[in-house]
Amino acid sequence: MFDDGAAYEQMMGRWSALVARPFLDWLQLPAGLDWLDAGCGDGSFTRVLVEAQMPRSVTGVDPAPAQLAFARQRAATATVRFVEGDAQALPMEDRCVDAAVMALVLFFLPDPLLGVREMVRVCRPGGLVAAYHWDLAGGGLPLQPILDAVRRQGHDSPMPQSAWASSLTASAGLWQDAGLTDVQTCAFEVRRRFDDFEAYWRSALGSPRLRQLSASLDAGQLREARERVMQQLQASSDGHVEVTARANAVKGRTPA
Prior knowledge:
The chain is α/β, with parallel strands linked by helices. 40% of the residues lie in helices and 24% in strands. The protein has helices at residues 5-27, 44-53, 65-72, 112-122, 144-152, 168-177, 197-204, 208-215, 219-233, and strands at 34-38, 57-62, 81-84, 97-103, 123-134, 181-194, 241-253. A seven-stranded mixed β-sheet has the order 3-2-1-4-5-7-6, sandwiched between helices.
């Protein structure tokens, strides 16, 4: 699914970066820590992490070579160690970081609890384990206007295999089951401005999920969906459109 880092950046990467800033502020961690970015993808969150937190070190782990290649090209991530690997079996030693985070990853994991436990394993005592993910049940995806339009035509797009894990209640339960303490949750709403509707539509089709869905529609169905989305977003007088997305976040401490 994630074979094009540049296309992913246009759609989901830039959205992830919008959530990253308030998320990192919410974590309230000092500079100079050792970090893990589990499921780092194309490095969108990693870049914001480096700029905002001034970490001592960052390790980014992801299973997709194309995403890692894109991440390595970012000037801000030149000091980051990017490693190919699985978030459910991190290629890292025990107790080697102060903070472990997942950005838009948890609901893709076949076993979310295993992924959380892996972050706990690599965190030092008293370290922070945290994540954010789209509010799937609440319709928080940046792609939601398109998915809603297509659904009204009788078509649907499969949800990530662990979509259930994205709710605040489920996330808190996973963190508690993994043995974390002082578990807290928070919801973020972010808004992204596009110069016009075309800019939003082009960026959305860079999403792996939307590419699969659009390939299953004929030209007429795709045109009808596009018109529905355009009516819903209602461009401003100067032509720009704004799209809102919502993300759920969770954090907790490893036992000291």
